[in-house]
Automatic annotation (TrEMBL):
GO terms of biological process kind: acyl-CoA metabolic process; fatty acid metabolic process
Superkingdom per UniProt: Eukaryota
Domain BAAT/Acyl-CoA thioester hydrolase C-terminal: 228-435
Protein keywords: Fatty acid metabolism, Lipid metabolism
A matching Pfam family: BAAT_C
Domain annotation Acyl-CoA thioester hydrolase/bile acid-CoA amino acid N-acetyltransferase: ranges: 43-165
GO terms for MF: fatty acyl-CoA hydrolase activity
Active site, UniProt feature: 256, 350, 384
Protein name per its UniProtKB record: Acyl-CoA thioesterase 22
Keyword Signal in annotation: no
Keyword match Lipid metabolism: yes
Organism: Seriola dumerili (Greater amberjack)
Family statement: Belongs to the C/M/P thioester hydrolase family.
Length: 440
């Protein structure tokens, strides 16, 4: 794949400018540029160039950010200036470091945490993520020039509204403009709390997005003994009532544990048109799910299938059994009841669980009931957390259900490419299916 920086105009409040540390070496002035602007949205590409170098001289580029937990993420790459004394990472190959080859955004997705098993944490989307980019002499390590890329989450005029309505807890993002806009509920993963980056960035694309917490957040239970689907029904009702939301149907986007919630909402609740299921399970897991008189128990893991990697991490990829087996069928989500459209996305090297198997199983269930209302996309060599584009790859991390660090699988470059591809598919999927008249 070849990617080039977006030629779109940056949002109005992003001025096209750059501020540089200038280093004078002999008669040349070395300058690091971030184009088209030092300020952009998090999911946008930028072009990094270094000018004024001696021809064919080695230069090292480094990136660094500090997340909201104080964890430092870093990457580095070795380049060689061309005959004109320039390095353009969109064209020049990295010769070593965190990645090799021509990777325009390698300094972003290849960043790794100084603290092992850390996933990038961004709580407050009102402020940008600051990524420092530095050029150093490849021979002496001397700092030649540096710049900071401010990667934001909200365009000018977007509204971020904390939600405390009845039982509902979350944050509503409303894009600028007259509207009305299609509405989407964003569900995140096991671990409690609320995650806003994906919801805010999706709202920039012309959707009203409700990032909906479901435990461990603002008075919601910290350790729920069951999940009440009627809570999520209230969330759908709340979103549909907003004057900025265009009906008739609502979208859902999920990842990991919330995948089964999204399938359950699509199967039991009305008013849902399009559901995105990313690296989820086709059965309910971890916490029993209740809806009126229906109880869907959690699929019990097979502990003997848990493995320990050579590095001492837990590998739970094969811990969950086939939910279609007779003894497990009570945990299976009855998605044959759903009449909405589905986008099933799965990483083939997901080690949180066998996502590709579960996605294919869900698709087969629909097909066996005469329904072709789905798209299925799988990504070889991608790991568990398929996030927004350019998010640093997370190979391992603490797992709330396991109580210790687990391996999440994948390879950094393939994972990054999967995130880029899926982000475009998600937008197109919602645009295609949230304007039609069919709902679950």
């Amino acid at each position: 794949m070849h990617f080039s920086p977006s030629t779109e105009d940056p949002p109005k409040h992003f001025s096209v400018s750059y501020r540089n540390t200038l280093s004078i070496t002999g008669s040349s002035m070395i300058r690091l540029k971030i184009l088209p602007s030092v300020r952009c949205l998090f999911d946008k590409m930028v072009q990094i160039k270094v000018e004024g170098l001696a021809p064919l001289k080695p230069v090292e580029l480094r990136s660094k950010l500090v997340d909201d937990r104080g964890v430092i993420f870093k990457a580095s790459a070795q380049y060689k200036a061309d005959e004109t004394g320039q390095v353009d990472v969109c064209n020049a190959p990295s010769l070593g470091g965190s990645y090799t080859g021509v990777e325009p955004m390698g300094l972003f997705w290849a960043m790794a945490p100084d603290t092992p098993h850390s996933k990038l944490l961004k709580k407050n989307v009102l402020s940008p993520t600051q990524v420092e980019i530095a050029a150093l002499c490849g021979e002496t390590g001397e700092l030649l020039s540096s710049e900071t890329n401010e990667r934001g989450y909200m365009t000018e005029g977007m509204k971020r509204i904390p939600v405390q309505e009845g039982r509902i807890r979350g944050v509503l993002f409303i894009p600028p403009g007259k509207g009305p806009f299609p509405g989407i509920v964003d569900l995140y993963t096991l671990g409690g709390g609320l995650t806003e980056p994906r919801a805010s960035l999706l709202a920039n694309k012309g959707f009203v997005v409700l990032a909906l917490a479901y435990y461990g957040y603002q008075g919601l239970p910290k350790n729920p003994t069951n999940l009440d689907l009627e809570y999520f029904e209230e969330g759908i009702t709340y979103l549909r009532r907003q004057p900025e939301v265009k009906g008739p149907g609502i979208g859902i986007i999920s990842v990991s544990h919330s995948g089964a919630l999204a399938l359950s909402m699509s199967s039991f609740l009305s008013g849902i048109s399009a559901t995105v299921f990313i690296n989820g399970c086709s059965a309910n897991t971890v916490i029993p799910l209740h809806y009126k008189d229906t109880v869907i128990p959690a699929l019990p893991p097979v502990i003997k299938n848990v493995k320990i990697t050579d590095s001492g991490l837990v590998d739970i990829r094969d811990a969950l059994p086939d939910p279609a087996l007779e003894k497990n069928r009570a945990s299976l989500i009855p998605i044959e009841r759903a009449s909405c459209q589905f986008l099933f996305a799965a990483s083939e090297d997901d080690h949180n669980w066998n996502s590709a198997f579960f996605a294919q199983q869900a698709a087969a269930t629909l097909r066996n009931h005469g329904k072709e209302s789905f798209q299925l996309v799988t990504y070889p060599k991608a790991g568990h957390f398929l996030e927004v584009p350019h998010m640093p790859y997370c190979p391992s991390g603490f797992h709330a259900a396991v109580g210790r660090a687990v391996v999440f699988g994948g390879e950094p470059k393939a994972h990054s490419e999967a995130q880029l591809d899926l982000w475009e598919r998600v937008q197109e999927f919602f645009k295609s299916h949230l304007d039609n008249k069919s709902t679950c």
